[in-house]
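Model: Ready when you are.
Researcher: Fold this.
Model:
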Amino acid sequence: MSKFKENVGELFENWNTIPNWLCFLRIALIPIFSVLFIKEHYIIAFVLMIIAAVTDLLDGKIARKYNMVSNLGKILDPIADKLSQVAIVIILIFKFWSFEGILKYLLFLFIAKELIMVIAGAVLLAKGMRPVAAEMWGKVATTVFYIFMIAIIAIGPNGALVGVWFFKALPTPVVYVMVIISVILAFVSLFGYAPGFIRQIKENKNKN
């Protein structure tokens, strides 16, 4: 338990940085754009969702360019990603499209993947270690996820913006391809974290 407390304490060293505040902003926007979608204020909700996605792209670049990398940021960024992605998937499943067949289960795979990541991170923290920072494939998967899922919510079958101005619905086969690509990248990123997770567990076991 002392290692856990020490590890948590170190997370908040030099935490007050612009990238971390961008992560806080992204987390704060999640319930706001979710409620706006439920209340069918689609335009404002999309703007906030896009802002959330942009903050995800900016925080890491700012942290590296201006030497603002922090222990908290390495964990906060993926947490914000996971919360955002789960919220978007839930919106897709329950609000905008009556998914049928395998596609609905593919979307649930996103939630399963994020639960695995959360459990793995909790295991590391409980053992006094820090969860692995986001890898390149994790960032690629997140970027593709935002682009594809926001597009599906907007102009997929029964999308929020279909029929508004010049927006037309995407063909269903295109939506299937977008979801499948997103799922594949999500699990590629998950497997990319596995070696680092296993290495940390082994190193911790050898120390003990």
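Researcher: Now this one.
Model:
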Amino acid sequence: MRVVKAAEERKNEILDVADELFSQKGFDGTSTNDILEKVEIARGTLYYHFKSKEHIMDALIERYNVRLLGAAQKIAEDKSIPVVERIIRVVMALNLSGGSSKEIMEHIHKPQNALLHQKIQKVIINGITPILTGIIREGTQQGLFNTPYPYECMEMIVVYTNTVFDDDMVQMTNEERASRIQAFVFNAERLLGAESGSLMSVMQMFGGGEGGNK
């Protein structure tokens, strides 16, 4: 007997299976037939929800975006975590992990997916900036920061990190990356009116301590 499921439930089931298969076999190595067989649905049902395999990947990226921003917001609202540590955790929450994350990153960095890459950058800039701004305002009340432009400062910082530390946008040696990180922290402290050296722990988000790099 054919099992009939609600549209949203079926759509999420397809995405769950695609996430698993992309992780195991890669995006290019996974066919729509692979997805059909594992979900056990007809081709027409798949195309009712998604026009192509590329549209499935786009939907997976959208789902990751929602989850990442949700995780970032949850961290930002946790007053038990110190302000600076919260900033670091919010930024770290943006790192894709698990499932088809590797395939997602490779997919969005392909030249033909430039518009998709731009869409993700827009989500990060418009979604994360206000979340971080709330933490900065809290830090200002605690005397950690001193800036009349908390939103603008965080926008500058998010845009910079989202561009310069994207390997697809700026190619750097390990030494150049380490120098950029130190300069970033140095200037972020001044933008926010923070005490010199107070944000050095931000280095952790880029993979290490002073001079550290990925």
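Researcher: Key takeaway?
Model: DSSP finds nine helices and no strands in the chain.
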